[in-house]
Design goal:
Helix content is 39%, strand content 26%. The strands form three sheets. A seven-stranded mixed sheet has the order 12-11-7-10-9-8-15. Helix 1 crosses helix 11.
């Protein structure tokens, strides 16, 4: 049984607490958040202990591993303190707000395999099946990857202000998926625009498109929007020399309707990231616990987190400066 502490009792903390509580090989040992109301409320749901200071997590002999869901500006601090205390780490994306801090974190943990990045979409059953089938050559040589990711509604402006921008906060998942399929990226072109004045006032984009080229000439396109009238739009297509594999949006059932005024009408797609990726979070935790039990390397790794952030920085530069960024 792996005893897990969660740092950060916000929305993502609730997601991880739910997954840990439901897992037969994990125990939610401690919840930490600087706001007592948040820490106490989450801990009471699962009948566990809570604290306000992360130092209590690192010092606890009752904690084997830490899930970090604190604000991004604290990620490196919490990663380093957790590893120094002998704890395994699952850290939410991004690893840091800038590459300088991310580089420092990697340098401090050069020989460490104790950190897994929370790129849960690698574990989504639909996306991971496409990846497996691409890797065994089912569609021949992969030539193009298209990733569409649109949120139902924009986050509050105050969240955007501290998020690092759309490319570091939202597109970061898509950058990791692109690397998962294509490997190292050498060229990035991004454009961004706005339909949301509140986000524009924060100096960020709420609409973005990114084109990437891999080291061996494969291409990817990422399409993002902070708002989507029909729900949480999550699609992927892999196009190869012998065909294509694609993942459509998920609905509650597979029922379709045909009538005089409609054809192939389906129910509304899922409207919340937890509903869409509930299996991904469960399987991500499975992988983390297996690595903890086997004392084996974590994947996605801290290096994967660094490379995704590197692409986010390149996209930010490209969108603001209107140029191709070569890596």
């Amino acid at each position: 049984m792996t005893r897990i502490a969660i740092i950060g009792a916000g929305r993502i903390g609730h997601v991880h607490a739910r997954a840990v509580h439901a897992h037969p090989l994990a125990e939610l040992a401690l919840v930490c958040d600087p706001f007592e109301t948040s820490a106490r409320a989450l801990a009471e749901i699962y009948g566990t202990s809570w604290c306000l200071d992360p130092a209590e997590v690192f010092a606890s002999d009752e904690v084997d591993a830490v899930i970090i869901g604190s604000p991004t500006r604290f990620h490196v601090e919490h990663i380093l303190a957790s590893v120094a205390a002998g704890k395994k780490v699952l850290c939410e994306k991004p690893v840091a707000l800038d590459l300088v801090e991310a580089t420092y974190c990697i340098a401090e943990l050069t020989d460490s395999t104790d950190v897994m990045m929370g790129f849960n979409r690698r574990f989504d059953p639909t996306f991971s099946e496409i990846h497996r089938r691409v890797m065994v050559g089912e569609i021949g040589d992969l030539q193009q990857l298209t990733v569409i990711s649109r949120d139902p509604s924009a986050p509050p402006a105050e969240y955007v202000a501290g998020s690092g921008g759309i490319f570091r906060d939202m597109t970061i998942h898509d950058f990791d998926i692109v690397r998962f399929f294509l490997g190292d990226i050498v060229e990035v072109v991004a454009i961004g625009t706005n339909v949301d004045e509140a986000i524009q006032a924060q100096g960020d984009f709420d609409q973005a498109m990114v084109t990437l080229k891999s080291n061996d000439g494969k291409m990817a396109t990422i399409i993002n929007s902070r708002t989507c009238a029909f729900g949480y739009d999550q699609r992927l297509e892999a196009f190869g020399s012998r065909g294509a594999l694609s993942a459509d949006n998920l609905t509650a059932t597979a029922v379709r309707k045909a009538a005089s005024d409609q054809t192939e009408t389906k129910s509304r797609i899922m409207d919340f990231f937890l509903d869409r990726y509930v299996d991904a979070y469960r399987l991500e935790l499975d992988a983390f616990l297996a690595a903890v039990a086997g004392d084996s390397p974590m994947s996605p790794s801290l290096r994967d987190g660094y490379e995704a952030l590197r692409l986010a920085d390149a996209a930010t530069m490209s969108a603001h400066e209107g140029r191709i960024v070569r890596l």
